[in-house]
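Now for today's protein:

——
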Amino acid sequence: MSSSDTPYANLTPDAVLHALQAMGVFSDGRLLQLNSYENRVFQIGLEDAGYVIAKFYRAGRWTDAQILEEHAFAQELLDAEVPAVAPLPLIADLEVDPTVRCLGQPATLGLLGDIRLAVTPRKGGRSPELEDPAVLERLGRFLARLHTVGAAKKFKHRTTLSVETTGRAARDWLVQHKVVTDDQRAVWLSVADQALDLAQAAFDRIDGLRLRRLHGDCHVGNVLWTPEGPHFVDLDDACMGPAVQDLWMLLSGDHQERQQQLHSLLSGYESFADFDWRELTLIEPLRTLRIIHHSAWLARRWADPAFPAAFAWFGTSAYWSEQSQLLRQQIELMQDSQQGRPMADEEDW
């Protein structure tokens, strides 16, 4: 097992506190690890009272340039008064550790050996009540504001969400590494390829599809609600993509419930910015990409001890059988969308 398989093996509490001190963040010793699988995230108590959040990036996932683009986007949002959480400036203290470096303008990415980290203010909140139409309308307005900032320019280094980069790349990795069990491989591969072909066809049908900078992973766990309203956290998956990517993961329940939720979201969204209604036909293709990508993500991270402990059900024959069934359902939904209407359109208003 290589160190890249277990990148946090040496991230002890002492290592965390030493890295922070070398970057000008002085803790009083209070350290609480928060839930996060991809990165390691800690709540840090400060000597002068208060808390910050320190995120230690997984080695090999993003380049320094990609991380700094994430940081710059967060600051752009904050400057435009879009409620996001942007990294704090860091200061390399060479007296604490002569190998420490801080990158960015301002410096927001700290490097110390194999450690790369960012520090943000701690922003509390609770999960938004997505069953409340007024909450969804407000979320829609804030997403429109986020997308308006996101449309102002393009990412140069971060990824673009597409069938090729998100779906086929994951499918190919799973096949090359023989992750799918022998008894399920042929079936899963057949339905995965059919689903990806339908997803690509859905993207191809939208002439002039506009891509913009997105949150990228806008599910309920990455939106925190306060009396002042929502704020967005964790731009780790920020990417170029269609606006609907930041809407569909907020929908839940049966078809009618999701349609009502979408109506509220778009009512708020269109009070601030135009929405390309053709993108609604991408909801099921995007869900399909996420299903395949999630399997590859689990497989890629399996050497990390945190993953077998949390996802013990992954990788079995039963798991791959269930994945094939999920993809069959997606195929039916995408075929229905081809033959009829999407889950909502402007005529429903």
